[in-house]
Amino acid sequence: MIAFEGVSYGYDGGNLLSDINLRLAAGSFHFLTGPSGAGKSTFLKLCYAELLPKSGRVTILDKIATSMSRDDIAFARRRIGVVHQDCQFLDHLPVDENIVLPLTVSGQFAEPRDLRELMDWVSLAPLARAYPPQLSGGERQRAALARAVIMGPDVILADEPTGNLDWDMSLRLLTLLMELNRMGKTVLVATHDMNLIRQAKAQVAARVLRISGRRIQLAGADL
Amino acid sequence: MPAARFRPSHVIAALRANLTSDGSADSIVPPSGHTAWLTTFTAGAMAFLAVFALALALASGRLAERWSDALERTATVRLSAPQDQIDLQIQAVLNVLQTTPGIASARALTTDEQRALLAPWFGPDLPVDTLPLPRLIEVNEDSSGYDSEGLRQRLAAEAPGAVLDDHTRWRKPLAIAAQRLRLLGFLSIALITGATAAMITLAASAALAANAGVIKVLRLVGARDGYIAAAFVRRFTLRALAGALGGTAAGMIAVSILPAADEAGGFLTGLGFQGWGWLMPLTLPPLAGIVAYFATRAAAHRTLTELT
Lengths: 223, 308
Hints:
- Chain A has helices spanning 40-47, 70-77, 95-99, 101-105, 112-121, 137-149, 167-182, 194-201, and strands at residues 2-9, 17-24, 29-33, 55-60, 63-64, 80-83, 155-159, 186-190, 206-212, 215-218.
- Chain A is α/β, with parallel strands linked by helices.
- Chain A has a single domain (2-218), classed as P-loop containing nucleotide triphosphate hydrolases (Rossmann fold, 3-Layer(aba) Sandwich), CATH 3.40.50.
- Chain B has helices spanning 8-20, 24-28, 34-72, 86-98, 111-122, 148-158, 168-210, 212-220, 225-256, 261-264, 284-306; strands at 74-79, 103-108, 135-141, 162-165.
């Protein structure tokens, strides 16, 4: 799905990530961990071409990121659902219209029954016509997850999705991500919440990647 | 690959595609508050001014044509002679004129007509008969024209006090002045169009910059640049079109209530439209729409590229 070959990226001349070699296979579940500022968000942004590598090659859904046109990137993002910690919405649109946004911008329409099912899945049906500023942190994360999956993407990228949530809500979100993985989606979750990772590893065959010294390595048994 | 040729049908097709298709994009861009009113107001004000500039251009065009037509086919023979010879010399001049190829008719102005000509300067009671004024002979040429130099020589021989004035000396500057006035009118329209484009570009750029967060979300969910740009382009084009419609209507009403030329007799009061000229201002709203379309489209694509 997404492959990194000798990828480096940095800001202001220095390298934050260096010589990254990694392949996210279809249907895999990965956690990406590391201290704050280690480059987790940068790595995720490289995965959906928000950033392009300074060197090396990132292949996104069989296309080399640096060779993709702006339209290619837009089409790729329709197959990559992204959930951020500070998930952003269009505040002037109600929640259900925000959730169907990926369909709207690609000229498709959501079947009302499908949308209702999705809203039920993330337990947001009663808040369908509420506006994003009226939602709590957990509700926003679930709405972002619903928006990320409505197109039936091949890949789900989540950047600290539980950062603002309590433990119960974090588990609930994790359960949703694991369900998606069981449906065959490739999932990558960037988090520094070790408890969440341990909880997931007990239920799903997740691999844990750690950013350390500008490189990404497979985490060992210390988790 | 050969460059695509400009065709009006392509522009119309692009406008139609952007203005009618996928209206869902409209709701995705939040209402942009004061920039909406500023765009509409600017387009309206500019259209209002453009109506007057157009009226000026058309009126000066009419004036240039009128002066040219009126003066081009006429000439005047000014005859100064002693009082006892004046009638003889008038007859001699008329004889010369009647036998000159290219002259359709010639006649001596009556004293009443001469008095009327001088009335604006000396009043209606001027005793023309008692003053040593030259007599004027009006000459109308036919379509083939005449040899003015040859006529001057013949007049000099037959009536030494006769001077031919073919109006060339002052006809040209008047016609040039009127043509320049017309050019000024069209230049004003061009400047107004440019200023409209600049202001709409600024307003669109401001709206795009203010909606950077919205654009980020749209990009994240897979919106193409064309889709995002279309939402802004459609909005600004329709606002400009609506504003220009209002401004044009107001301008046309204002022009229509100006005093008519024949009532006051001056050039400025002749500022207005005549006949098919009334259709000309109707081109301004579509022009404003086209200008807004291209200005917003350019601004949107530039801003979207910068926001990457």
